[in-house]
Design brief:
455 residues; alpha+beta; 4-stranded antiparallel β-sheet; single chain; elongated; 11 strands
């Protein structure tokens, strides 16, 4: 699992492309097309099947009646060949003395039994043919009645073409109706989305329900209005609470600061007492900076200022030297020729760097912690136990405490605050394992350039 590369203050990137089939408008159009195509195809199939059945029944009934009539006329006058009333029907009678001749001339007719049979094939000139053959066999005569199906087949082909054209026409008509219906159905939804999008530009959202009729979209707009009202109330209460807490905490901290400064001004203090008072003073300053940073985060507004990062790092080193507890640890600052000045309040820079430097000192038992100042970056490198894959993946999660934090104090929210400050100011923070050992944390004050849209 890769370590987190960067944390920046920008909205979540939307998908560059959305699948066409997932859009509601597309689903409506597709539903109309599929419905029209399915119903038309089913109707065409049933119509074709019914036509074939009815036609086949009529033809067979016609042939049965005609072959019976042909046999009756033959027995009335056996000398003459009876006439057939229809041009498409050809009749033939074979007497007993010509049965063997029929076997040689048309063996397929010879083998057929009584009933109606479908015969098809290709003539000598390559023309396909198809006909129905009615057969009646008696001991002395065999009667054959052939019904030419060529015209019927041509009519069936034309009928199939007409059915196919109807299916295509109805499908296109369904597409147009679906397109029109989707536009009508989605028009109020799109209007609601546009109004909801434009209402986010102000701190007080505009009511949506009055702009829509009392239908499903109007009910949705009313529910969104209610949700926006409750959400605005929650945000307002949260801001008021943070402002009240910040104000109320500043007062006792100001009292502590004044009392410590007054005590430090006394010349008769011994060194041990003066060191303890200095520690109280540093703790008071840390609390003040933290309160200021949290207030900025709660208001979601950027403060301004010209903060010297090198001076902040030196103050952090002074504050942590008293907490080394005899560890063989060296704190070193590597600054460039030009001072690194950041347009941000000193409290925000102190809180962001303080968590990175504090973690490096806390988890490094021996060696050194080096802070390197670049053109617009600060790099904090330590010689501690390093970083596991799980720690690297979850380091900036609120409440997460790393593998090496079993016996240390803290609630695991320090780096979460750093992440939120970076999101507010457009900074980037990255924590990766060192080249040999330890951890390297990099805080960049240069806003990340927006990436090009995906192709």
């Amino acid at each position: 699992m890769r370590p987190p590369e960067s944390i920046q203050g920008r909205p979540a990137r939307t998908r560059s492309r959305r699948r066409y089939r997932r859009r509601l408008r597309s689903r409506i159009i597709l539903s109309f097309v599929l419905l029209g195509l399915g119903l038309t195809t089913l109707f065409a199939f049933l119509t074709q099947e019914a036509r074939d059945r009815v036609e086949n029944t009529l033809v067979e009934d016609l042939m049965n009646r005609n072959i019976d009539e042909y046999a009756r006329r033959y027995y009335v006058d056996p000398v003459r060949n009876p006439a057939v009333p229809l041009e498409q029907i050809r009749a033939r009678v074979i007497k007993r003395d010509r049965f063997e001749e029929l076997r040689r001339e048309q063996p397929d007719w010879y083998e057929l039994g009584d009933g109606i049979h479908n015969l098809s094939g290709v003539d000598e000139d390559g023309t396909p043919f198809m006909y129905k053959l009615a057969v009646r066999k008696t001991p002395d005569e065999w009667f054959f009645l052939a019904y030419d199906m060529s015209e019927t087949m041509r009519g069936a082909t034309q009928f199939q073409r007409a059915i196919f054209g109807s299916v295509v026409l109805v499908s296109l008509l369904s597409l147009l109706i679906g397109w029109w219906s989707a536009a009508r159905v989605m028009s109020p939804v799109s209007a609601l989305a546009n109004r909801l999008r434009s209402s986010g530009d102000t701190s007080t959202p505009e009511a949506l329900a009055p702009h829509f009729p009392d239908d499903e979209v109007g009910q949705l707009a009313s529910a969104l209005d209610d949700y926006a009202f409750r959400l605005t109330e929650v945000v307002q209460r949260d801001r008021e609470f943070n402002a009240d807490v910040s104000h109320e905490l500043r007062t006792p901290l100001a009292v502590i600061k004044g009392a410590v400064e007054l005590l430090l001004s006394r010349p008769e203090l011994d060194d041990k007492t003066r060191a303890r008072l200095a520690r109280i003073q540093r703790a008071e300053q840390q609390c003040t900076d933290l309160i200021s940073a949290l207030l900025l985060l709660s208001r979601n507004e950027r403060g301004h200022g010209a903060t010297d990062v090198g001076r902040v790092v030196e103050q952090l080193f002074d504050a942590h030297r008293g907490q080394l507890a005899g560890k063989p640890l060296t704190l070193r600052l590597e600054a460039g020729a030009q001072p690194l000045v950041v347009d941000a309040p000193e409290s925000a820079v102190t809180v962001a760097l303080g968590n990175l430097v504090g973690n490096a000192i806390k988890y490094t038992l021996e060696g050194e912690v080096v802070v390197r100042l670049g053109e617009a970056t600060v790099e904090v490198a330590d010689s501690g136990p390093g970083l596991s894959a799980e720690d690297a993946a979850r380091l900036f999660e609120r409440g997460y405490r790393g593998t090496h934090a079993e016996h240390s104090q803290g609630g695991g929210i320090g780096l979460s605050i750093v992440r939120r400050l970076c999101a507010l100011y457009g900074w980037q923070v990255r924590v990766v394992p060192g080249a040999v050992r330890g951890v390297v944390a990099t805080l960049s004050f240069r806003p990340e350039r927006p990436s090009m849209p995906a192709d």
